[in-house]
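User: Could you walk me through two proteins back to back? I'd like the raw sequence and the structure tokens for each, with a short line separating them so I can tell where one ends and the next begins.

Assistant: Of course. Protein one, sequence then structure:
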Amino acid sequence: MECKFSYQNWGLKMVRIAVSGSTGRMGQTIIEAIKQNEGIELGVVLDKGDDLNAVLDQFDVLIDFTCPEATLRYLQICQYSSKTMVIGTTGFSDDELQVINDTAKNTAIVFAPNMSVGVNLSLKLLDMAARVIGNDADIEIIETHHRYKVDAPSGTALKMGEVVANALGRDLSKCAVYGRVGIEEPRDKETIGFSTIRGGDVVGEHTVSFFMDGERVEITHKASSRLTFANGAVRAGIWLQDKSVGLYSMQDVLDL
């Protein structure tokens, strides 16, 4: 389904967007999303080797789906030039995540492992399900992506685990189990399991299962087009236009 936003109808000014990683799969899709929507302008396209400092007068917000190293480099430039940033990059270390948190004191950032409206609605549902049945269930998360995705588990799967763990008062870093090999002890009910599948051209599928005696509840999201993520990222970029500092999520953008 084609999804268009007319931000002029919201009484907002036209926003100029810069897209990094412009020749990549997500970069190309974000450019397509910008062209499909009214009231926004594609100001800059960036690829490896391009100098962001040279085009600071041509955009208001940077949308970045690249790699941690490049993202942090762009972020440093944005914070000193009054530019906002939408970050969809995943695979950050704990230290790199702290850099993002610290930088948000100087500029406005939307940082989310998944910009899809459906995924962020799923996060809301997961919080509800965990609070109602989580303590009585064995919880497992399965994610599937295309063969080229390099980080595992996906940022979305980790975010889902974090939402569930927080709802149950658990620390994901201590209760997460990433795959099982060989003979082990019986499953600890306090753990949250992760399984990763890579193959083909799957855009992204995530299922969180709550296994209870006699029944099972599953919350699943399946993406068939990267345009769902791209439209969400564009929406986040426009939402940032009246924000000066702060670290925000798609939950904030969608008022969830």
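----
Protein two, same layout:
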Amino acid sequence: MKLTLLRHGNTEGNLRGLYYGASDIPILPESEEELKARALKGGYPSANRYYTSGMKRAEQSFAALYGDIPHEALTGLREINLGEFEMRAYEELKDDPKFIAWCTGDNERNVCPGGESGEQVTERALAALKPIIESGEDAVIITHGGVIGGVLAKLFPNPKGRFLFTPVPGTGYTVEFEGTEPISYHRVPEDEENE
């Protein structure tokens, strides 16, 4: 079974360096055109089943890459809720004691004030993915960078954690499974470099 996890296209939040996750913002029009052009070049896998997180940026990215193929929204694959930090830039937050406390120490377990922790997001995403993986059918999912990074780090533990696997917008990974055990992964599209 092959599970492909792709990150949505670029948003204004990406360009402005904002902390955002639960904010349901769209992709940029130029990013939508870029995704359509990439789709025409190929390199994005097909599958038996298709999903998104249901967020606007994931839905728009799905349409740009896959058109009107039927798909299902899985809210468990939504991006982290950054609570009080949503839609705010580092410069605005850097002296905030709550932000400093969140950034210090265990960045997987620290909960954003009014939001979630990275660990909570990963656990809900894995719960949403469990029946998909157990079905044994190839699937493509358009979701979010933090979700992808957390899931891959859980499936393939490493010293850098989620940051090793957080893909740039419009890219992601295909994970190959034997039964329900992950055995390998590769970048998608394969000719793209993730950061």
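The radius of gyration is 16 Å.

Let me know if you want the two compared in more detail.
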